[in-house]
Design brief:
With 340 residues, this protein is of the alpha/beta class. It is built from nine helices and 16 strands. The protein has two domains: 248 residues, Rossmann fold; 66 residues, Arc Repressor Mutant, subunit A. The strands form four sheets. The protein has a nine-stranded mixed β-sheet. Helix 7 packs across helix 9.
Length: 340
């Protein structure tokens, strides 16, 4: 240590005195333990249904899509939901997802001394939540759906205040999942479309977008960020099945997630970052018309010239496809060339 632990002094530890440890996961490469994960999307994309599916797998120690369940034993889930009614929505969805309902704990309210009850608020009830988690070590996942309903008096756009609320949620053996809505700011990269403070993305170690592919009409769970995965983890496609469930003596159809496998879709493409991408592509198209107007050019020379103009390779390739630029090898067969 370079410092004492006197009040007001820095507490510093040398890196060679710190033991490295492996990152543990609730859902390998998708939802880390000991961290915050954000799942975002517009209403109706199935966020709560995906949460019900994940929760059911935790309570059963069942395999996750495309990977195993690393927990090794069933775990409990704590749900704080400000939008969905437990009787008509949460419990039916968890039931058809196959959850062990005895392992699902739903926070309905906070009891007040002689004054009834009120909704859960992070700005007032974080210590109560921490106590529940410490007394129930089998809880492996905490869900706030949506997180903005649990902020109390803290405005959702106040960056530092929101960060201060979220930091104490982190616990080594628990995955905290925040469900968030998207803002209406078109033209931004997908990661900046998550509504509210940047902390909902900044503090999260993994973030996922739920959106429907406008071309295939297929629902997607796509990566926005993943700090602990060495390589990009692909998205997943899914659909919703209606499952009959007996409720109050009548049969109701309740939706359930059915996973369809990996998806290579890009979150930015799905959300159509129209203004920014369209302008960038238009610039790239004009560049290609100008640069290739005199005839065939080496592909590497085109890329270098585009880079000097500030055109990304991704945008260049999109413009190349739109212009139907022809790629071929030169007479020696060793060099790729582009031509209009």
């Amino acid at each position: 240590m370079l410092s004492t632990t006197n009040v007001g002094e820095l507490v510093i530890e040398r890196a060679d005195q710190i033991t490295a440890r492996r990152q543990h996961w609730l859902w390998p490469k998708r939802i880390p333990l000991g961290s915050i994960t954000t799942i975002a999307g517009v209403p109706g994309e199935g966020k709560s249904l995906v949460i019900a599916d994940i929760a059911s797998r935790v309570t059963q120690a069942a395999e996750f899509p495309e990977t195993e369940n690393p927990l090794g034993e069933p775990g409990d889930v704590l749900v704080i939901s400000g939008e969905d009614d437990p009787e008509t929505a949460l419990v039916p969805r968890l039931t058809v997802a196959g959850a062990d309902l005895a392992r699902i704990h739903i926070v309905r309210s906070v009891a007040l001394a002689g004054k009834g009850e009120r909704e859960f608020r992070l700005d007032q009830d974080i210590e109560k939540l921490q106590l529940v988690l410490s007394e129930n070590p089998k809880i492996r996942m905490v869900v706030l759906d949506p997180v903005t309903d649990s902020l109390g008096r803290i405005p959702m756009y106040k960056e530092q205040e929101v960060r201060a609320l979220l930091r104490p949620l982190r616990s080594p053996d628990i995955a905290v999942v925040l469900v968030a809505h998207l803002n209406k700011k078109e033209g931004l990269a997908a990661i900046h479309r998550v509504g509210g403070a940047g902390a909902f993305i900044g503090l999260a170690r993994a973030s996922w977008l739920l959106a429907t592919n406008p071309e295939t009409k297929q629902r997607q769970m796509l990566p926005l960020k993943n700090n602990y995965a060495a390589r990009a983890t692909p998205g997943l496609a899914f659909e919703l099945d209606d499952v009959p469930l007996e409720v109050d003596g009548k049969t109701e159809l309740v939706p359930r997630v059915k996973w369809l496998g990996e998806s290579l879709s890009d979150a930015n493409d799905i959300l159509d970052v129209s203004t920014v991408r369209a302008d960038a592509k238009a610039v790239a198209i004009e560049f290609l018309k100008e640069f290739l107007g005199g005839g065939q050019k080496e592909a590497n020379a085109v890329r270098e010239a585009a880079k000097r103009r500030g055109i990304s390779e991704r945008t260049l390739n999109r413009a190349k496809a739109d212009l139907r630029v022809h790629s071929s090898k030169d007479g020696t067969g060793a060099t790729w060339t582009w031509s209009l």
